[in-house]
Amino acid sequence: MPTETDPATRGRKPKRAPPLRQAPNAIALLRAAHTELQQMFTAFENTRSVNNKRFLVQRICTTVALHSQVKEEVFYPAIEAVLRRSRPEHGSMKALVTHIRSLEPVAEQVDGPIKMLAEHVNQHVSDLHDDMFPQVNASDIDLVELGDRMARRKAELIAQEA
């Protein structure tokens, strides 16, 4: 075992374990998911490729469905004690996702519903960012622990779909 006087370790700093990366808090996770969704909607709007549209339709629908489920199962129940009206409605977004998944991803059929979904998502995101997130941030909820639970649940849902 090397010692401080061992020539092989002399002059070197002792190795430290890398610092543990703290999981993002729940609000940061939700904001990142919202940004990702907005980027997907923009990419969909800007592409003319049917293959890209197919890929983006699938990804948008999966992301909205997973995101909604994690919020309904983990986030909203955790913040109910802080906010009385803590469960925004996802019904219209879920219905649109179901409708979009039933369509062939060609411009005539999908463009309108995707645009409508983007509008619903953007309004929902705006409401959360302007109203709910500031209240949750001001609360004593452990947002890192909540973010960890949300990330674990999302990973479970993704694994179930695979």
The helix content, as a percent range, equals 55-70%
Work out the radius of gyration: 22 Å
**What is the CA-CA span between the terminal residues?**
46 Å
Q: Please give the oligomerization state of what you see.
A: single chain
**Largest sheet geometry:** none
Structure summary, number of beta strands: 0
Q: What can you see in these coordinates?
A:
- With 162 residues, this protein is mainly α.
- Helix 2 (50-79) runs parallel beside helix 4.
- Helix content is 69%, strand content 0%.
- The termini are far apart.
In short:
The mean pLDDT is 84.
Give a topology summary.
Blueprint: H1 26-46, H2 50-79, H3 91-101, H4 107-137, H5 143-161
Helix pairs in contact: 1-2, 1-4, 1-5, 2-3, 2-4, 2-5, 3-4
